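step 3/5: co-fold with zinc ion
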Amino acid sequence: MDNVEPIVDPNDQVMDIIQDAFPFALTNINHEREDDVPTPIDSAEFEQYKTLLKNANQELYPGCENFSVLTAIVELMYGKIKYRMSNMCFNYFLGVFKRMLPTDNCLPKDHTYAQKVLNGLGLGYKKIHACKNNCMLFYKEHEMLDICPICNESRFKMTSQNRTTKIP
Ligand SMILES: [Zn+2]
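step 4/5: write tokens
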């Protein structure tokens, strides 16, 4: 049986990452942690962050009650990681969902754009590496690992210059 389940529930990881990155912005997602103390950051950074957050927190389309842009991205990215979906597959379904939604929706058009939104909020794979087979994230207890504990794939890839670089 090749289909090994990830050690940690990816949903927990996604939620942990969000909690860590913006502990003061999550009252809609997780009410249990609303007594957490906000992390102080400098004011220019905070203004930029507020703009990004405002965009991310807008409704997915006018009148949408169930999803903000951010929660839509997080749920879709969760599925992508959980089912080890390729970027191509992800883009295909994202394109279909986008056409199903009202034309003035704010769903990202592709994985790159979804990643940009998360990166802007400090949630991207640039800071948290994922196994290139989408098994798991190099995060928390896996942060220092160089090899994916599930598929044994290296965290680093050889470039054409024959040196190792971290996969973004
Ligand atoms: Zn792996």
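step 5/5: annotate
Residues 156 and 166 are 5 Å apart (CA to CA).
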